[in-house]
Design goal:
By secondary structure, the chain is α/β, with parallel strands linked by helices. It contains nine helices and 14 strands. A hairpin with a 3-residue loop joins β1 and β2.
């Protein structure tokens, strides 16, 4: 069993890039590098040698640093097989059910379309770490730019089934705004109300709200609770299929 040491780098206005280093071998991946320079500088400060890039999807704020980091380090770029044409510098293509080794730390790959048609996520079970890009956020989920509500609900259901102690390393600091929306559709959720207070306090102190845990997301994230009768009732869809409830909640968030 090999553990990852994970370092979070805030970049741009609200992105997070992650350095994930296998403690057994020193292999080190950059997850979704929006930009190159801050990542290279932080790796140098830590004394970590970048050996890989792990991309979840093709958006520029997730692959914008690929080429420069690859040129500087000679690292291997890993990304979704279904979207290989849009991942700059991709060398290794992975798909649903694949396992990919970062040194001795092994990720399980999930195909999770919805935000984009080729989105994937990487779960490192031994490190209790999920790198989910823009599919799942703390208290939210990604916009449906290239997929359907049914696809996204199916994708989120895959991730929801992981152990509750899984840490959710999503790619953006959207949590405070997501909490305001969540309260608008799930106001009677006591766990959500308490979490929203904690989020406001953390942000007032300048602290990140990411990572969260999957257990916390299951209890408070409305996008993971579309099959909960209470949430369905709250959006006037009692008895509706979860996909329909999810679509309504996603629509409300889009116009919130």
């Amino acid at each position: 069993m090999s553990q990852l040491e994970i370092h979070q780098i805030p970049v741009l206005s609200d992105n997070y890039v992650y350095l994930a280093r296998d403690t057994a071998t020193g292999a080190c991946a950059v997850v979704d590098p929006a930009v190159a320079d801050p990542v290279l500088e932080e790796a140098a400060r830590l004394g970590w040698r970048i050996t890989h890039i792990l991309n979840t999807h093709h958006h520029g704020d997730h692959v914008g640093g690929n080429r420069a980091i690859q040129a500087a380090t000679g690292c291997t770029i890993v990304g979704p097989k279904a979207d290989r044409a849009r991942i700059p510098g991709i060398e290794v293509e992975v798909d649903d059910g694949d396992r990919y080794a970062l040194g001795e730390a092994v990720a399980e790959v999930f195909f999770v379309p919805g935000h984009t048609r080729g989105h994937i996520a990487y779960w490192f079970p031994d490190s209790h770490a999920l790198f989910c890009g823009d599919t799942l956020f703390a208290l939210g989920c990604g916009r449906l730019f290239e997929g359907t509500p049914g696809q996204m609900w199916h994708s989120l259901s895959k991730l929801r089934a992981l152990p509750e102690d899984t840490r959710v390393y999503c790619a953006h600091e959207y949590t405070q705004a997501n909490a305001r929306f969540a309260l608008s559709v799930d106001p009677d959720n006591a766990a959500l109300r308490e979490r929203a207070k904690d989020i406001d306090l953390a942000r007032a102190r300048g602290e990140p709200t990411v990572p969260s845990t999957l257990g916390l997301e299951r209890r408070t994230n409305p996008f993971l609770r579309a099959d909960d009768p209470g949430l369905a009732a709250a959006v006037a869809l009692s008895g509706a299929a979860p996909e329909q409830v999810f679509a309504e909640v996603r629509h409300r968030k889009d116009v919130f």
